[in-house]
Design a protein that fits this description.
Elements (H helix, E strand, L loop, with lengths): L6 H20 L4 H8 L7 E8 L4 E7 L3 H9 L5 H7 L5 E3 L5 H6 L1 H7 L6 E8 L5 E9 L7 H9 L1 H8 L25 E6 L7 E5 L11 H12 L4 E7 L2 E10 L2 E8 L8 H10 L5 H8 L3 H15 L4 H11 L6
Antiparallel strand pairs: 1-2, 1-5, 3-4, 4-5, 6-7, 6-10, 8-9, 9-10
Length: about 325
């Protein structure tokens, strides 16, 4: 028998869920702490929080307590289940056991082959969406006790959708919200140009995740994609790099996901009022190249490169090219691809 909670108790438990989710996004907690806190809202027998992987087209369990067979179903087959389709494409992103229409329940393998053998009597499946509309994951909660969907719990679960989505969103997490270490702010406040998932397989094309991808991020063999793969291979992720690209710097935030790297790309302001060409020259300095080497790479004369370096030192207020290179490395500046 389930003890009915007061509205105050439910709201208090929901605050614990929100706090746990915030810690996960900041990198100071695991997804299992979110499910533990959620048990204060719903006295469940089984629960799982899963991230959607658009590259492999399957769910990845971040935390869960379902038996192995049920977990495999959630990860590999749930996205084709009629019950999942009903929730994902409806205005109500949370669907409780008792609200699923009979015809859908009868055709859902998840209901009659996975949940019913576990003795499940009630529960909720909640599709999770980022603020920009991307589907990022799903919460599944099941109980062997009848009716856990009291009005306060229903209302709270809807409100918790945003913070639960943040936990499953591959574009969020420790280090992903940071800038370029003082290199400069966004030219369009808060604007994110695009996000793509770059597979580890060099022959596989990147998959658009959000926004309209830049041309240099859609071709498997493009120099910009090659730069992403090199950076992901040699640096610990998440990380942020700054790249001169078509007369304006791009900020690329790289986060690991499954068999690929999620890249959030946006145009940012040029740091320290550097011109586009000065930024390119500065990026070359991070590689320890001589003036003649830089000139050959950028199709300039060595004298012109020397002039650009003089201007760079003055704008950065540093004594020499080594100090300028150190500043650029701190920004995450990489040579143009």
């Amino acid at each position: 028998m389930t003890v009915k909670q007061s509205t105050a108790d439910v709201l208090g438990a929901a605050l614990h869920v929100r706090d746990a989710a915030r810690h996960v996004v900041k990198g100071s907690g695991g997804a299992d702490t979110v499910l533990t806190a959620l048990s204060g809202v719903i006295d469940y027998d089984h629960a799982s929080l899963s991230r959607w992987d658009p590259l492999r087209r399957r769910h990845l369990t971040l935390a869960g307590s379902y038996p192995a067979e049920a977990t495999r179903y959630i990860e590999n087959r749930l996205h084709d289940d009629p019950g999942f389709t009903l929730i994902r494409h409806s205005a109500d992103t949370a669907r409780w056991w008792h609200d699923v229409p009979g015809p859908v329940r009868r055709t859902s393998t998840g209901f009659h082959s996975v949940l019913e053998p576990l003795g499940v009597e009630d529960g909720v499946a909640q599709c999770l969406f980022a603020a920009d509309g991307r589907y990022v994951g799903i919460l599944n909660v099941s109980t062997t006790r009848a009716r856990c969907d009291q009005p306060a719990v229903r209302a709270v679960m809807t409100l918790l959708g945003e913070c639960l989505a943040a936990v499953t969103d591959p574009l969020l997490g420790a280090g992903s919200a940071g800038g370029t270490g003082g290199a400069g702010g966004s030219e369009e406040a808060g604007a994110c140009s695009c996000a793509v998932l770059v597979p580890d397989d060099e022959d596989a094309a990147p998959v658009a995740v959000s926004g309209e991808p830049l041309p240099g991020l859609t071709d498997a063999g493009s120099p910009l994609v090659a730069l992403v793969r090199r950076t992901a291979a040699r640096q610990a992720l998440p990380t942020t790099v700054l790249v001169p690209y078509r007369q304006r710097p791009l900020e690329l935030r790289l986060t690991r996901q499954g068999a690929g790297t999620v890249v959030v790309c946006r145009a940012v302001a040029r740091p320290s009022a550097l011109s586009p060409r000065e930024l390119e020259v500065l990026a070359e300095l991070t590689q320890g190249r001589t003036n003649r080497e830089i000139a050959n790479r950028l199709f300039l004369s060595p004298r012109t490169v020397a002039t650009h370096i003089e201007h760079i030192l003055a704008k950065l207020d540093v004594p020499n090219r080594a100090a300028a290179a150190g500043r650029a490395v701190a920004w995450g500046l990489e040579p143009a691809p």
